[in-house]
Write a structure and sequence with these properties.
Elements lengths: L1 E4 L9 H5 L4 E3 L6 E3 L9 H10 L5 E4 L2
Antiparallel strand pairs: 1-4, 2-3
């Protein structure tokens, strides 16, 4: 899978970090999310899909390879 994260529309809610802390993190200065891993393993799919669903700004898109 491949993850797309649109930082321009991220509101810094942190739901993605809570759902998938091995894949997402937040910048210290403004809380905007960033990817730790753009192509996570299949074992993380459930957590990443949850992060996508919980994002209030719809800033996360998960694509199947």
């Amino acid at each position: 899978m491949r993850i797309e994260l649109d930082q321009d529309i991220c509101v810094g809610s942190g739901n993605c970090v809570i759902s998938a802390p091995d894949v997402f993190d937040q910048r210290d200065d403004d809380g905007i999310a960033f990817l730790l891993e753009e192509n996570p393993s299949a074992e993380r799919e459930s957590a990443v899909k949850e992060a996508e669903a919980l994002c209030p700004a719809l800033a996360i898109r998960v694509h199947k390879k």
